[in-house]
Amino acid sequence: MTTDLKKIRLFTDFTQEELEEVRKISRREKISQGECAFEEGKPGETLILLDLGTLKLTKKTREGEEQELVQLGTGSSVGEMSFFDQALRSTSGVAMENCQVTIIPISALRSLLDKSPAMAAKFYKRIAMGLAHRLKYMNEDFAALKNFLAGGK
Known about the structure:
This protein is α+β, with helices and mostly antiparallel strands. 38% of the residues lie in helices and 27% in strands. It has a four-stranded antiparallel β-sheet. The longest helix has 33 residues, at 117-149. The mean pLDDT is 90.
C-alpha cells in the first residue's frame, strides 16, 4: 500500500509527478501504541508524515516530567522545525494508537527541493501556512493563559 501524500497538508499542491519524486525518497513505517516516533533531544533528521493514527507531542519539564503539548492526527506532519534549524528535536512524539507514518530524510528532501524551484515554492508555502496556523492558536492559548493567571479579569 502506497502513501497518499496528497492527503498530507504539506504536499496538497504537488502534482502526481512531484508526489512520485517524494515517494522515491520516502519509506513507510508502523509505530505501535505507546512507542516513541521520535525523542526530545535527539537529532531531527527526518520529516514524519502521519498517514494514520494519533501522536501525542510531549516536552519534559525542569523536573523531568512529561508534559503533553498537543495531539496530532492523520494528515499531520512533524519535523518542520528540524528541516530549517537542523537542531535537536524539541519534543517527543508518542503513538496514542497503532500508527502508520511516512518517513522522509530531511537531507534527501532538501536535495529534491533544491532541484525543483516549483516544488520548493509549493512546499515552503505550505510550511508557512502551517506555521501561521500554529502561531494563531498559540496566541489564543497564551491570551487565555494570561487571562486565567490574572484571575479571569
